[in-house]
Design a protein that fits this description.
Layout lengths: L12 E7 L10 H15 L5 E7 L3 E7 L2 H23 L10
Helix pairs in contact: 1-2
């Protein structure tokens, strides 16, 4: 069954969560969290997405964004792919890092 499109609200504020596949750890240490935030900052620089708050936990993260659904979707896809490549390379894993939304 195909996933449903992201709901777009008139305010354009979105609470987004990401979680490790099977609730696995996605941030093993401070270096992983710093890399993720650097990637987020880099990806934000060429979008019309604004981040107002974030909270990085060991196996998931929360964000408050303001953006159109299309821009937010593009950002999260690029961020997830970049971080998964980094994480898998650094920790010797293969495959998916994040659960589907």
């Amino acid at each position: 069954m195909p996933r449903q499109p992201r709901c777009s609200l008139p305010s354009e504020f979105s609470h987004v969560t990401i979680r490790g596949l099977g609730r696995r750890i996605i941030f093993e240490d401070t270096q992983d969290k710093q890399k993720f935030l650097r990637l987020l900052l880099n990806k934000l620089s060429d979008t019309e997405v604004f981040v107002y708050a974030w909270c990085l936990m060991d196996n998931h993260a929360h964000f408050l964004f303001r953006a159109s659904s299309a821009n937010l979707s593009k950002l999260m896809q690029r961020l997830g792919t970049s971080y998964a490549q980094y994480y898998n390379g650094r920790h010797g894993h293969v495959g998916k890092v994040f659960q589907n939304r």
